[in-house]
Specification:
mainly alpha, 3-stranded antiparallel beta sheet, 16 helices, 7% strand, extended
Length: 495
Amino acid sequence: MTESLINLFDRVPERVFRPLGAVDHSRRNWLLLSHLYNDFFAPEADPPDGEGWTQKRVTASIERFLQRWDDEHGADPEELATPLNVRAHGALKMLIESEWLSTDRVGFTQFIIMRPTVQGLFELLKSFAEQGPEFIGGRVQSIRNNLMQVQADPGANAAVFQLAAKECSSLLRMLNTTRMRVREASDLLRQQNTTHIFLERFFGEYISSLYIGDYSDLFSKNHPLTSRWEIIDLVSQISEETESRAKLRVWYRKNLRCRNDEEADSLIDADTARVLALREVDRLLTRLKDAVTRANDQALGYLEYKVRSQGNFDLWIDQTLDAIIRAADSRKDEDLRIAIGWSQGRLLSQEALKLPAAKSRKRKGAVIQKRQLSPEAQARRLVRQIMKGNREVSEAKILAYVDRHLPNGGEVESGSLVVESINDLCVLAAFSRLGLVAERALRNEQKGLVRDKLYRELGKHIEIELTGERFENQYLEAPSVKIRRIQIRGQGHVG
């Protein structure tokens, strides 16, 4: 492969990194590029009206960014005397000269655009800057699913084969890069002298940014990475079987512009080797585990030392006491008041000591007295009990109602029953409900489902079934049921 194919600046402008290399404004320039990308060139941004964005609109967006930057970070002293619109035009000129942005003239109108190669470079840099914890399990599962699709239909899914090979290479690079980033973070943490900076960098950069998201499950038997040998078998079958390899060869020759079968086979072998490189995962995982263990041991050792160590506390306390005594001795005739954490007066005197805390008196428990109901309250309670009893529906009351209206062996429909009291009305309504329950229980028995009966003793004395019609009297409208008497209750039944 010639140098012209691998040189980065054959694809992107040579001056493209100048704004990001500026010592004073590199961070501001990066955020400015992100701001313009989100406003004009991101996939979710509003499309332009014509061939691009007018210079006036881009300049107005830069002015808004610079104003917000000055409010949050303060204006550069060298730029205080420069009007905001002049600074915005200068920033736009810088981005055009470095070819982050380009101008395109259509007729008499000049538009601002971002060329596709430059936009692709920015998106790669943005993705790298926003990179968070990696999840290896999802990548491995994706590779396995892709190769299963290729095995099912090599001709239609040949492009997926190449994608799976790229994902394998990316996975191995990520593991190796993570190990190096852990070592780099460990070296940086070792250089921190203050505890709060160490904690901030350890939890803010190392744990949140560098750590693998599913690292705790990475070495378990249930992690998708354990299926890597199945992935290796799949790619071996796909590349070695004559039929599937022939279909892959056809796709490679057509889409990758191979001149002959030998060139297509070499590309297939290269992609196959990328997947087979998963056999080296164990070595990379061991090295990664060693690096993470060393970094964790270093961080925990440092934190344990800081927690146990008193540092220079004794020296600081002695210096503070000496300063207080000197201040008190220098002003003997005046009251000395210093903003410290105890009461004012002669410093460290007996009067400044805290008084002993007075013991709280033991509270006596309240005497619980039985409440006596008034005659009116007793009458109300009796009425409520009578009301509750009249509305209660039990097996005994249902059978007592049946005894009054139905002889032995007879049957009657609910529409012809007489209501003589509130309890009779409640029992009559219960008949309709019992009919519905009986019909549902019959359907359940046909399906093999057995449920506990609502009233277990009723089935020994009466049968209730729906007639399919409805009845209505002066109190109630409900489904009509037929009640059939089986036997009269014996003397042992409590009514």
